[in-house]
Amino acid sequence: MKALMRITEKFHSLFTAIFRYPLGLTFFFLASVVNFWSIENESDNLYLFFTFLIGAFWGIVMEAVWERFFKKLQLRLLLNGLAIISALVYYFLVISRFSSNPETQIRTIVAVFVLFMAFIWIPTIRNPKEDFNQRFMAVFKLFFSTLLFSGVLLIGMFLIVAAIDILLFSLPETVYLHILNLIGMIFSPMFFLASIPFYDGALKVNISAERREFLQVNTSKAFQIPRFLEILLSYVVIPLLTLYTFILLIYIAINVRAEFWQDNLLEPMLVGFSITVIFVYFLVSQIENKFTVLYRKVFPMLLVPIAIFQIIASAWKIQDTGITFTRYDVILYGIFAVIAGVLFNIMPIRKNGYVCALLIIFLMISIIPPFDAFTVSRKSQTSRLVSVLNENQMLTDGMIIPNSQVNEDDQRTVASATEYLWSMGYSAEIDFLGENFNFYSDFYEIFGFNAIEKSEEENLFLSLNQEEPININSYDQLMMIHIYQSQSFEFEKDGRIYRLVLDSDLSPGTLKLYDKSGNEIQIIEMIKVFKTLVTEDDVVNSKNLLSPEEVTVVFENEQSTISFIPIFLEVEGSQDDSNYYGDFYVLVKVK
To answer: Could you read off the pLDDT of 130-172 as tens digits, one per residue?
Structure first.
């Protein structure tokens, strides 16, 4: 009976969420419709999806504002209207300008995270009955509960669809994506929002005493810390984090030197440490035992010097790489971590909401021009590129003069700055690169040297322009081979049968031409084909859309001529241990 009541109450909560967050769930529904259309038509409608996603989070944040501070219906409608306007502003100011730019996705992810943190923090503003730590714990538990229920439902639906597909009748492969879309965009948000505790302000509206008591009991349960989680945090997470901190401090102490600051492991280790310290601090703020009390006293003090250390390490790297949006964000986060550590040391635990507000401010700084990560990094990398070009007298009247005599350090600077600007979609705004610039195919022609320095590790790629015709007039047969599988072909000429065999047992294989009697006419080691196409002096990591004439490799003896035209070719690894991949057109002529 109790189980039935719980199930009934859960369904009731799901329907309650629809009336509690109508605008947010409407936007989630519209996002799912966009996904449905994209799946069915194999199209990309990210600009609409992002707009509806931002609208959904604005909708639930505005509902939180209304429930915390207001109770008049007119104000609720006004706040929902502001949420809709915010989504429209996002569309016209962000999506319409950066729709094909990686910057859009990063800005959207950060904006969603900002709104989510605001959703947690807003109910605790000037609220004497609950603090940020309680709300953070409630959302933390609910987030993982939603993942669990959604995951179980997803697996169950997948198994049912698979059973129908195998046992009854065939289903389109897209049905799995549609199920994932429905659960991710409709069920998961409804389940999550249905269990969000009602804010104290919401209990001031005209509801029955019985309903108010029920909501208060549920809210109290939501703020409770499960015994399992308390044990996990106190006796597992904190000791492990302590041990990790001890190892990190020893590593720093015995390795401090000039080269140490350029260690690629250092920065992520320090950032990961500070994120973990702050996250765990929020979770254990309500737990009172020797481990958690000691953690709250010691780790904020450790956080400040280690975060300063991280800022120095990141700033040191800027000397070599310039400012990128990731390095900007890492340094900005380091500043936040230092201030957070100080606040943890001087403020009572109940005031942790100020740290959340500070995080929201820093995140907004990172995405709102003119001092955002993207604007600053674009200006930094452009300035870095122009400076090196001017030093080498390669930039005249807005045009680049190729120069193969540039020293290696400057070549590296030009390559890294250009690759960043191109990958972020900024190269179209730079006159001397142009809108159609492609880093991998155009770099050498524009600058006069290769973009990637030769090293022990290779990752070389070549592709054929398949829109150009291939002349086969002088050949008897045209076949296609795959390096990764053994193949055999037979063909006839002048009444005689010939056989072409690719043996791929030993990479990259051997190609042999036999006559009818099994006599070998010609044997070609495929490694020779690769070595001809990718020489030891070739440092270009990518050659795209080459013509057949540029890539044809011919092997000839007295009995036959065999030519290879790579459709695509890839070499991975080192000179001593390489992996070879590729598809080839093989043209055969028997004399």
So the answer is: 789 888 998 999 999 999 999 999 999 999 999 998 888 888 8
Taking only the tens place, the pLDDT of each residue in 106-136 is 889 999 999 999 999 998 888 777 789 888 9
Residues 6+ positions from 472 with CB-CB distance below 8 Å:
478, 587
Where b means 16+ CB within 10 Å and e means fewer, 155-170 reads eebeeeeeeeeeeeee
CA angle centred on 141, ends 135 and 144, rounded to 5°:
135
Rounded to an integer, what distance in angstroms lies between the CA atom of residue 286 and that of residue 362? 26
**Contact of 51 with 104, CB cutoff 8 Å:** no
Q: At what angle do helices 132-163 and 353-367 cross, to 10 degrees?
A: 60
The angle at the Cα of 398, spanning 395 to 399, to the nearest 5 degrees, equals 60
pTM for this prediction: 0.74
CA dist., res. 454 & res. 413, Å (int): 15
Instruction: Report CA-CA distances (Å) from 5 to 12, 18, 47, 148.
Output: 10, 20, 43, 21
Q: What is the largest CA-CA distance in the chain?
A: 101
Write the pLDDT tens digit of every residue in 372-403.
999 999 999 999 999 999 998 888 888 898 88
CA angle (583, 589, 591) in 5-degree steps: 155
User: What is the rounded distance in angstroms from the CA atom of residue 200 to the CA atom of residue 130?
Assistant: 9
Which of 353, 266, 280 lies closest to 317 in space, CA to CA?
Answer: 266
Q: Can you spell out the DSSP letters for 151-176?
A: HHHHHHHHHHHHHIIIII----THHH
Q: Give the span between the Cα atoms of 450 and 226, in whole angstroms.
A: 59
